[in-house]
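Response to reviewer comment R2.3. The reviewers asked that we include at least one raw input/output pair. We reproduce the pair for PA domain-containing protein here without editing.
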Amino acid sequence: KVESNIIVKTWQASASEHIYCEVLEPQAVAYFYRLSPAKDFGTQFNFTFYSAKLVFSHPAHGCSQLSNAYQVGSRIVAIERGGCSFMTKVLVAQEAGALAVIVYDNDAESDVHVSMVDDGTHREVALPAMFMSGKDGHTIKHTLESLGYGYALVNLPMNLTTNQMYMMKQAPWNVW
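Raw output as returned:
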């Protein structure tokens, strides 16, 4: 099945599992990254996006209308933690037409995964949302900026049934 030049393959992940994102380009950050799905809001992944574009939000915290909304439509957007609820960030990206949202920790040295939970406002989120460590998110963002890239190409989510494949393409700054 092809939608918006992105190949989509049926697959399902539950909120209790980690999922993985594979960065294809730029090569400097072409690794697998562990993500934690939102606990009680958003939709589950029931497909994989292949060679999808991952862009970073402007403003970074994504708590208000995105100034780069024209770049977010039909793409996966990464938003920095802080400033508002996880749900608000995802809804702002949803309004801009994002396919999915990755919230990364605001602490650039953190390798911790936090639980993204509903903020109790009873709003409807209609896309997948997940959390990435600050170390991974900031590294990808700074690499894109230093290379002058507007986006990274990713496969998301990747169903890694064995850790062997993940360990072979694990980011060198992540120790498991």
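The two ends are 35 Å apart (CA to CA). The chain has one domain: 2-166. Further pairs are available on request from the corresponding author.
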